[in-house]
Amino acid sequence: MNWKEVDKGWGDQARVWATVMEPRWWPEFDALLRATEVGDATDYLDIACGSGLMINMAARRGSKSHGLDASDRLLAIAKRRTPDADIRHGDMNSLPWSDATFDVVTSCRGIWGPNQQAVHEAARVLRPGGCLGLSFFAAGREASQIGKAFKAIRRISEHEVEWSTQLGEIGLEGRAEEMCQLAGLTPEPRQGVEFDLEGADLDHEVRAWMSAGPAWMAIQERGAEEVERSIREEFADLEEIDFGIRTRVLIEFVVARKPS
Ligand SMILES: C[S@@+](CC[C@H](N)C(=O)[O-])C[C@H]1O[C@@H](n2cnc3c(N)ncnc32)[C@H](O)[C@@H]1O
Predict the structure, then answer these.
(1) Considering its fold, how many domains does the chain have in total?
(2) Residue 54: which CATH number?
(3) What is the model's pLDDT at position 17?
(4) Neighbouring C-alpha atoms within 13 Å toward the C-beta of 140
């Protein structure tokens, strides 16, 4: 999909994504900000920042925050949340900043499998000595229940089967590290963060996943009702009377440094 069309899917449910889905990933954002040592006066960029919770958390740590995403409607929320940040609409494969602008660049599940060009761009805008923090779903880990969401969508959408297999490649052993090395960065050992995505009940869970880009693609193919039904069926067995739906997620990330 051309980056100019990304907003059709990712922006369609922007308010729901920002309020129901995005906050559930805060342990990942926190882990990455700590691992990359974002703090006072850090020149910081988040690539594929979505509705910008990560940027907001970085700004609260004192950083000079910047963000980029292809979805105008998600960005409108990001700008409203952190008005002082420099937040731009654009393509991660061609960043609108000069070489060596940032101390830290991150992307949380924003740069996926085959997208080497985006890693090259991230490396280009880093200062020597600066670092890139890249997070992604751990591939093939049994402890992670996140596969349920992809399964719910994949089993009814031809397009998503092909697309998500390619995109998920970055989680394979050594793949993210290799992408960083190809861009001239030196990766540190891979780290992980485990947490539960919390949903009040099945309705909440369905609403959260229906706001994600991949669901939108499936909705175009099969209609909202069928996608909703599939998500509901897949998550039903995770419901606990006193705790709602808790989905165990394992996120892995690599911090890779640009040589001084
Ligand atoms: C899985 S979401 C992650 C959003 C955010 N990092 C978070 O954790 O909430 C993927 C994001 O990538 C953005 N995106 C997709 N293709 C893009 C591109 N070519 N350039 C910039 N952003 C893009 C989407 O608009 C969406 O916000």
Answers:
(1) 1
(2) 3.40.50.150
(3) 98
(4) 6
